[in-house]
Amino acid sequence: MNTTLSRTRQEHPPQLEVTLETQQVSRVGLVDRIALHLGLALITWSRRTHRAESRERRAHQYEQNIARLERERAAERSLRLTVPQR
Predict the structure, then answer these.
(1) Helix runs in 1-86, H state only
(2) 82 lies in which domain range?
(3) pLDDT tens per residue across span 60-75
(4) Alpha carbon distance 23, 86 (integer Å)
(5) What's the number of domains the chain is made of?
(6) Has residue 45 been placed in a domain?
(7) Which bin fits 12, alpha (ψ -120 to 50), beta or left (φ > 0)?
(8) Which of 4, 13, 21, 63 is 20 to 30 A from 78, comparing alpha carbons?
(9) Would you say residue 76 lies in a domain?
(10) Is residue 4 part of a domain?
(11) pTM > 0.70
């Protein structure tokens, strides 16, 4: 291989020199920041749970789940007992 590589460093893509006078810095005003915080607070407030679930309701759901599991086990047991063996 007779190829020689260039030892100079090149920027890719070439960057233009930017002075401080040409840069524009946009800042968010106080009113805009307050509006943003207020908007986020309203969104989080609207997505909260609207009412707490009562202890009785949770206990009832737990009992329903237990009853459902018992029914499923009984159905599977009766199916296994009635299906002929291979």
Answers:
(1) 30-46, 55-82
(2) 57-86
(3) 999 999 999 999 999 9
(4) 83
(5) 1
(6) no
(7) beta
(8) 63
(9) yes
(10) no
(11) no
